[in-house]
Each structure stands twice: as structure tokens, then as C-alpha cells.
Design goal:
Helix 19 packs across helix 21, helix 26 packs across helix 27 and helix 26 crosses helix 31. By secondary structure, the chain is mainly alpha-helical. The strands form 4 sheets. A two-stranded antiparallel sheet has the order 1-4.
Length: about 750
């Protein structure tokens, strides 16, 4: 990329000599000995370090591994057998680049990289804390997906989320983008101080902006000056002041039919309310006339000696009527009112009519899509330092501002606003935003960032392993990474630059020389093996099974989950298992309750959405293996793989084995693998032939009748308890075959290779 203009660095603060606060300076890519290995400038920076350390880069990964890596990285889905064949048999010199361009153009690209952004935005479908009621904010999630698919420049992407509502003639999408700020938790407990938790939400927004765009632990300055970085408590509350002036409305998105129906209902309700008000205003006169009539009727009854029982029943009522109005007790007033209302026909009709109309309106509004946004207040709230972070202990007043260690925030008006903050974050003079952004993207491709502490670019964070490369990439993002047709702040151009480099295309195979000299692969002498994220594991299994519903966007869905998940939540959560395609949507659309998230996601280390997550942990637990083998959803997916193998593969067992590997692992099996899987399928087929009930139970999604060890050892499936007393089903060959291949698919979906990006 081009070197930054001189004016871009003129106002950088001199208060710190820490590397992260210095201007971005794009050095010339260095010369290297092995010129033939270089594919683009990224490779020169990496290769120069390797050569200086006496190391060589790894060979390029084989084409099958490259395609699977690229597909999982760019769209979060494995390649189909047809896509694999098209790439493997394409001998054109730009075959790889054509795949890159196809994947970047896929609508699934926005889903894949949108998921990373939603982690940082702490997106969830509920309010958090113990009540944790649901919220409708999925329109913000769709905004992120659509913006990334459209390659909205990152500076615009930033400005719209921080202050889209403040842009001139702000569009609906730009207002939706401010939902970024509404992903904060909401405490609905009884007796809470609303102002306290409003303050907590603003504090969270300050900390989140500091983490996501600046890579700094800004939140540490809430109670006192930062202990390590040049950030003062006053500066924290200057940022707080910029984010403290928001109203929190809800936007509605009625359909055309709903938009017509709602005003008509409101008009009818208003009309009935007015008539009811008129009736109530005239009620005293009507009541007195009614009382005179009733008193006359009671007097007539008293003269009639044949009605003593009726008079006994009316005794209390008659006494109440005889009592002067101003001397009646509350009980007497209530008794008369209860008798009067059923006899007042008009009032008796209007109230049920009003109740019915209000119920219709409530039902209509429940169907109208809404989303949470922020809107700048007409008059800003005053802001103060909170002594030791306590909002009740007000200190000195503060005016809006940013961090003195970075270039000055220059307001467009008399006083800085949230829109000024947004523009400051992506100002060409600000060195942190481009560095932090490219580092996080690099992290997703190589398992670790060039700065390993991706959420802390401060004094306690790690120094970059390749500082010149980090700055070169930061400048390439700002200037446009494609030299042929640069688009400033284009994320897709940056992705393309990285994945077409020789560094990215290396094999991930371990090497003794690298292990000895660079055990943590900081010099990037090979690619990294990365355990897939929770959603990607599920998506890959759905894709292999041919079950994936590839629809983009929309409200959250409810895939199958184990019973009893909500036994320990304060309020039982809604979870009606989705039917049809919604049952098989991508994992990022699964409705996320903060207090009780979808168990599969948490088993594979999805964040809890309570705070910004810029790097997911990757654990390795027995529960993960048990889930992949026995979770009902994964048994269903294994059956889907089996049906595809039998329907789309050849009748030859060898070709079926090959096809199963291609569906699950995007490669052919070697001879040992093919022989072992064929032997396993034969053993399962024999066992299920003797126990058709177990085969039927397995295909119904219940793995319990089969021996848990059977998938590992090939032992005969155990018969369920009911089988001894019930007639033995006929051994249908197709059912037996499907069950045998389902068992085989359970093995393949449980392999480390399946859940790993090589």
C-alpha cells in the first residue's frame, strides 16, 4: 500500500513512546533469497524472518486440504464433492484465485465473518441477568451480514454502528446499525435502580468501543487512572460523556398489511374509548334514574305478601339503596355498582368491545418485527467523574473528548458528539483502529494474531512478532489492499490478499526443525491446525448430511436440544423445536438465551455474550466427543450422511466408503482407512441384521438402544429392554444398510480431522 500522507501523522501525541501509539508507517517489503516462493508482499515479510532464523517455509498444502481450508475460512462451510472436483481438475494457472473470488462473492461470507463481529458486539437474543427475558434485535445481526456481503468499507461500517442515527438523512439500515450499542445487558429484577443499570450500560459501551476498535483495556480507567497505560480516569469519563446522550427506542418494521391494519385498529379503539368516556361522564344521572326505578320495584314487592323470599335476597341491596348516597359504605357502593352495570346495556357492550380490540392490537404488535436502536437526545446529559466508579459519588464535571495519547478528536461543532467519536476512530491519523482490525483478521487465519494479545495493545500486551508486516497490512487496509483497483477500507480486498499469499497456503504438517527453533510457530514456518468453532462444526455436519437450510437472515430458530435445559433458570425459557428448514439453519441463527445458551454451542466454547469476545478459547474435553457421537441432532445428521452415501454413491462398498470420506472430510481415504471403515460397516450390518429393532431406533434419532462402545469397536448393538417382550421387526435390507452407514457416519463426524481446519 501507499505510504500515509504527512498530514496523517502531524497531530500524534508525544506522551508515550509505546509502539502501538506511534503512527502507522508502511515499510517497503524486504528482499529475500527465495524469490520463487513469494506470491505477494506479505510473503516477503514472513520469509525474511524465517531466512534470518535459518528456517525455510513449509511446502504448499495439497489441493484438497487447501480447498477445505479456504472454504471453511471464508464461508464457514466445507466444499461439496462437486466443488472439490471442479477445483482438482481445473488446471488453469488462476484456478485457486477463481475459488477465492467465488467464496468472497458468496452470501455465506457475510455469515462467516459476521459471526466473528457478533462475538465482539456481544450479540444475544435475550436481556441477561437472572430474569433474562427475550429481545428482538436480529435485524442488527442481519445488518452485519448484509454489510459484510456488500463489502461496506470498514470506516463506514464503524461510523454506522457507532452513530448511524446521527448521519444526515440517516437510512433505516444506518439506524438499525446502532443496535451495536443495544447489545448491552438489561436488568429487569424488581427493586433495581434503573439509573444504576443505565450507567452500567454506558460503561459497557465505553469499554466495548475501547476493546473492539482500539484494542485497549479502557474499562480499567473507570475507577482510577490506568495502572499501566497512559489513560486517565478523566479521559474514561470524557468517552463516557460521548456515549451518555442516547435514548433507547424500539424501531418497528410492519408489513404492508400490518401497516394498514394498525391505524384502523387504533382509530376504532379511540372511537370506542370516546363513547365509553361519554357514558361514564353521564353515568351519575343514569344511575340515579335507575335507582329510582329499582326502589319503586322493591316498594311494590314489599306490598305483595307473596314474595318474602325475594325480599330476603334483596335485603342488603335494598338497605344500600335506602341509604343516602353520601353516607353509603364502600361495600354498599360496590353492591349497587355490580347491580347497575349489567343493567346498563351500552356500558355492558362497550367494555368487552374495547377489551377485544385491545387484544387484537396486542396480537398485531406481537407479529410486527422490531429491533433495538439508539437515538441522540436533543439536549445532552451532564457528565461527571464517578469517584471510584460509583455513580452515586459525583466528582468533577467533564466535557466530551477522547484519549490524549492518540491524535486529537476534532469536533465538527462546538462540542464533540458520538458522530465525532465514530469519525475519530477511523481517522487516518489514528494508528490503533487499522492495526487492531488487521490483527484480528490475521488471527482467524493463523490461530494467533501478529500481536498475540489481540485485546490489549497496551504496555502489558505482547509486542508484534512482525511489526513491519502489521503496519504494512494496516496501511493496506486504509489505502486498499488490491493495488490494481484499491478500495480504501475494503475488508474483502484484505481477505483476498491474505488467502492468496504463500504463507497462508503452506501445509500445517509439524516439522522437527520448526519445533526446535520456533515451537509456537511465531515465525509462521507452517500453517496452523485450528479447531473449528461451535457453529461451524454444526454447519459442517449439516452440510455433509445434505440437511443444511442455506437461507440468509431472519429471526432466531430453535433446533433440537436435550430436555431439562431450563430446570435451573429463574424463568422457564421458550424453546419449541423448529420444524421444516428452520430445524437445519446455520448455527449463528440459533436463538441465544444468555442465562441458558444452546448446550452444543457452550460445549464447543462459544462466548456467553455478556462482554465483547475478540478471541474464542479452544478447549478439548470428553464432553465434546460424547456430544458428537450421541447428541440426537448429530445422530440425525449421521443418518443424513448415510442416506446420501446410499443414494448418491455407487453400489460398490469401496465407492461408498470413498464418497463418505469426501462428504465429511473433503478427501479420499487412504488404503488403511478404506479397509477399516469397510470392515466396520460390515460388522454393523451383521449386528443390525440380528437386531432390526436397534436399527429402527437408531434411525429414529435415539442412539440409546445401540451399544455406546459399538461405534468404536464394531461390537453387536445391544437390544433395548422392550425388545424381549415385543415382536421382532422384519430385517428390511434398506433399513439395515442405512443403520450400518449411520454408525459409520457417527465415526467420521467424531474424528478430530472433521472438527479441525488443517
Amino acid at each position: 500500500g501507499a505510504a500515509p500522507a504527512a498530514s496523517a501523522t502531524a497531530d500524534v501525541s508525544k506522551k508515550s513512546d509505546h509502539w502501538a501509539f506511534q503512527p502507522v508507517r508502511a515499510a517497503q517489503p524486504p528482499g529475500v533469497k527465495n524469490e520463487r516462493w513469494v506470491r505477494n508482499p506479505i510473503d516477503r515479510f514472513v520469509l525474511a524472518r524465517l531466512e534470518a532464523s535459518g528456517l525455510e517455509p513449509s511446502a504448499e498444502a495439497d489441493r484438497g486440504a487447501l480447498l477445505r481450508r479456504l472454504s471453511l475460512d471464508l464461508v464457514g462451510l466445507p466444499p461439496t464433492p462437486a466443488e472439490s472436483d471442479a477445483f482438482l481438475f481445473d488446471n488453469s494457472p488462476d484456478a485457486y484465485e477463481k475459488v477465492v473470488d467465488r467464496l468472497l462473492a458468496s452470501p455465506h461470507y457475510g455469515e462467516r465473518w459476521g459471526r466473528h463481529w457478533l462475538d465482539a458486539a456481544r450479540y444475544a437474543d435475550s436481556n441477561g441477568y437472572t430474569i433474562d427475558s427475550g429481545r428482538s434485535i436480529w435485524k442488527y445481526r442481519d445488518y452485519v451480514i448484509n454489510a459484510l456481503n456488500a463489502d461496506l468499507p470498514f470506516d463506514r461500517f464503524t461510523i454506522e454502528q457507532i452513530a448511524g442515527d446521527m448521519l444526515p438523512e440517516a437510512t433505516l439500515e444506518q439506524k438499525i446499525a446502532t443496535g451495536f450499542h443495544r447489545n448491552t445487558l438489561v436488568n429487569e429484577e424488581g427493586g433495581t435502580d434503573k439509573e444504576q443499570f443505565r450507567v452500567e450500560a454506558v460503561v459497557d459501551r465505553v469499554s466495548t468501543v475501547g476493546t473492539v476498535w482500539l484494542g485497549l483495556t479502557v474499562g480499567c480507567a473507570r475507577c482510577h487512572d490506568h495502572k499501566y497505560d497512559p489513560l486517565s480516569q478523566r479521559e474514561f469519563y470524557q468517552l463516557y460523556s460521548l456515549l451518555n446522550n442516547c435514548e433507547e427506542p424500539t424501531l418497528s418494521f410492519p408489513t404492508e398489511h400490518q401497516a394498514r391494519e394498525e391505524p384502523a385498529l387504533l382509530a376504532e379503539i379511540a372511537q370506542v374509548k370516546k363513547r365509553l368516556d361519554d357514558v361514564l361522564i353521564n353515568s351519575p344521572g343514569r344511575r340515579r334514574e335507575w335507582e329510582r326505578t329499582v326502589r319503586n320495584e322493591i316498594a311494590a314487592l314489599r306490598k305483595n305478601e307473596s314474595t318474602p323470599e325475594v325480599l330476603d335476597l334483596l335485603a342488603d341491596f335494598a338497605t344500600a339503596l335506602d341509604t343516602p348516597e353520601e353516607k353509603r359504605s364502600d361495600e354498599q357502593k360496590k353492591l349497587i355498582d355490580e347491580k347497575f352495570r349489567p343493567n346498563d346495556v351500552e356500558r355492558n357492550v362497550l367494555e368487552p368491545q374495547l377489551t377485544e380490540l385491545q387484544a387484537k392490537l396486542k396480537q398485531l404488535k406481537a407479529k410486527i418485527t422490531t429491533t433495538l436502536v439508539v437515538r441522540e437526545m436533543a439536549a445532552p446529559r451532564p457528565a461527571f467523574i464517578h469517584v471510584r466508579g460509583d455513580f452515586l459519588r459525583v466528582g468533577a464535571s467533564v466535557t466530551p473528548g477522547a484519549l490524549a495519547v492518540l491524535p486529537e478528536l476534532k469536533p465538527a461543532g462546538a462540542q464533540a458528539t458520538r458522530l465525532d467519536l465514530a469519525r475519530w476512530l477511523v481517522d487516518g491519523r489514528n494508528p490503533l483502529t487499522p492495526r487492531v482490525t488487521v490483527n484480528r483478521i490475521w488471527q482467524q487465519y493463523f490461530g494467533a494474531g501478529l500481536v498475540a494479545t489481540e485485546n490489549d495493545f497496551g504496555a502489558q500486551g505482547d509486542r508484534p512478532t512482525h511489526p513491519e508486516l502489521l503496519d504494512w497490512l494496516a496501511d493496506a487496509l486504509r489505502s486498499g489492499a488490491d493495488r490494481r483497483a484499491p478500495r480504501p477500507w475494503s475488508l474483502k480486498q484484505l481477505h483476498r490478499l491474505i488467502v492468496t499469499s504463500a504463507v497462508y497456503r503452506q501445509s500445517s504438517a509439524a516439522r522437527a526443525d520448526l519445533a526446535a527453533k520456533d515451537p509456537y510457530n511465531k515465525l509462521l514456518g507452517r500453517q496452523a491446525r485450528i479447531r473449528l468453532e461451535a457453529e461451524t462444526i454444526r454447519d459442517a455436519a449439516l452440510a455433509a448430511a445434505g440437511l443444511l437450510d442455506a437461507s440468509i437472515g431472519g429471526p432466531g430458530v430453535y433446533p433440537p436440544q436435550p430436555e431439562g435445559i431450563y430446570a435451573f433458570t429463574q424463568q422457564r425459557k421458550f424453546w419449541q423445536t423448529s420444524a421444516g428448514g428452520d430445524r437445519y439453519r446455520r448455527g449463528m441463527y440459533t436463538y441465544f438465551w444468555r442465562s441458558s445458551p444452546y448446550p452444543f454451542l457452550m460445549t464447543f466454547d462459544a462466548p456467553d455474550a455478556n462482554a465483547a469476545c475478540t478471541r474464542r478459547i479452544r478447549s478439548n474435553t470428553p464432553l465434546q466427543a460424547l456430544t458428537l457421537a450421541n447428541d440426537r441432532a448429530f445422530v440425525e445428521m449421521a443418518a443424513g450422511v448415510a442416506r446420501r452415501v446410499l443414494a448418491e454413491g455407487s453400489r460398490s462398498e469401496a465407492e461408498r466408503t470413498s464418497y463418505a470420506f469426501r462428504l465429511c472430510l473433503a478427501r479420499e481415504p487412504n488404503s488403511v482407512e478404506a479397509e477399516r471403515l469397510a470392515r466396520f460397516v460390515a460388522a454393523q450390518r451383521a449386528a443390525f441384521s440380528k437386531d432390526p429393532a436397534a436399527a429402527a431406533a437408531l434411525l429414529s434419532g435415539d442412539p440409546s438402544p445401540t451399544a455406546a462402545a459399538g461405534a468404536a469397536t464394531g461390537a453387536q448393538p445391544a437390544t433395548g429392554a422392550k425388545a424381549a417382550t415385543e415382536p421382532t421387526p422384519t430385517a428390511d435390507p434398506q433399513t439395515i444398510d442405512t443403520a450400518a452407514w449411520t454408525a459409520a457416519a457417527r465415526v467420521l463426524l467424531n474424528l478430530d480431522e472433521f472438527i479441525t481446519r488443517e
